[in-house]
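Format notes (please read before filing issues)

Several people have asked whether sequences and structure tokens are stored in separate files. They are not. Every record keeps both together, in the order shown below: the sequence lines, then the token lines. Line labels are part of the format and must not be stripped during preprocessing.
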Amino acid sequence: MDGATPNVVTEDGLRDLLSDGYLIEVVCNRTAEKRHNSWYGSWVVHAVTKDGQDAKMLVTSRSVFKLREFKTIVGLVSFLADMGCLSANIPLIAGRRERHEASEGFPTATS
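Then the structure lines:
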């Protein structure tokens, strides 16, 4: 093995996987709650194959392995849009999951 950890991926690696046909799976870790005009909770992102067999957790850095956690819906939707998703279906209950497909040609933060 070349030292890479097979079950984690960084944001740049996620972009590469999306171009190879992977999906983004959003997992709700803590049930969302509305405070004033915003929704708060805890969501993490996995890159998964369409058959769900190969899952990789999104981390902030491959050297630190800190799971990338989203605490607001606004932050999560911004991330999904930056990844090329045309819509966002956000699970609000802990344990729920939703998959998203990136669109080719959609303008992203790196385009």
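For reference, the curators noted about this record: The mean pLDDT is 89. The chain has one domain: 8-100.
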